[in-house]
Amino acid sequence: MSKLRRCAAAAVTVALVTFGLVVAGQPTASAAPGFQVPFRCGVTVTAATFSGHNPANSVDFQKSGITGMPVLASAAGTVTRVANEGSISYGRWVEVDHGSGWRTRYAHLSAQQVSVGQQVALGTQLGKAGATGGVTGPHLHYEQRLNGVAQKAVLHGVAVPYYGHTDFTSRNNCGGNPYTPEQVCGSGFSVIDSAALGAAGKIYLLYNSANRNNCVTTLKATSVGTASPVSAFLEVEGSSRKTDSGDFAYYAGPVRQAAGSTCVKWGGSVGPESYTSPFEHCG
Asked: What are the residues facing 130 on neighbouring strands?
């Protein structure tokens, strides 16, 4: 799975879950923010995707009574567009820049409640859903764009299925960390050990028996959604240590290495709180 938490952002009712989403031709350095459903905590909406959508990979969020519902920023960023196309195209729409080439768009709004240049946090209300522009009924048109191209959407670390209608329950601004260690490390990994960093967060060691890889991630429990220092490392005995560290909104990692029957040392930090294990889990 991509590192979906860089510049911030499930109770997701999804049967088809795909981790490890990689868009061909896109550099891994442009890791996406931890995008979340752009509606209030606890609201369930249907993410509709279909062939021929313009642009490709857009999502139409549908729900009975959606007109007037608050539309929230799905990650932190800076508002770059507040536009009104009238009765064509997007109608009333907002664009937010999240850094590293990533932007989101929210279209067909009945009202816009932000201005260009405004800094918005995860969960900031951008406007209200509606049916402006070239539409046949009320919904929220939503895009996750990388370097100007709409990508297949990921919400709460879960890839939106293409093509179909899938219900997602928003965890936007619910409090707490919206990610699990399994979501960060990817399909096939299970937690085999963990270490608490006081109230600051927790480090997890996971293992995938299919490929004999270990994975380490550090999940924040404080300043969740705001970029702050976090790290995670994994060292296979006899090999060099691999570390992921920086100012992240939700977690550090995933750090993966093949270990098999070789002992590993693992750990990480959130702010000043840190943990380093001895060499262990040798078989």
From this structure: 139
Model pLDDT, residue 193: 97
With a CB cutoff of 8 Å and minimum separation 6, the contacts of 153 are: 35, 47, 49, 57, 59, 142, 143, 144, 159, 160
**Under a CB-based contact definition with an 8 Å cutoff, are residues 154 and 100 in contact?**
no
Beta-strand runs (E) in 51-172? 59-62, 70-72, 77-84, 92-99, 102-112, 119-120, 125-129, 140-146, 149-151, 154-155, 158-159, 164-169
pLDDT digits (tens, 9 = 90+) for 177-228: 878 898 899 889 999 999 999 999 999 999 999 999 999 999 999 888 788 9
* Sheet with 273-276, edge to edge strand ranges: 242-248, 228-236, 264-270, 273-276
Could you tell me if residue 42 is left (phi over 0), alpha (psi between -120 and 50 degrees) or otherwise beta?
A: left
**SS3 state at 184:** helix
Prediction pTM value = 0.64
User: Token match 């937010």: residue?
Assistant: 96
pLDDT digit string, tens, across residues 53-62:
999 999 999 9
| Separation between Cα atoms, residue 245 and residue 250, nearest integer Å | 12
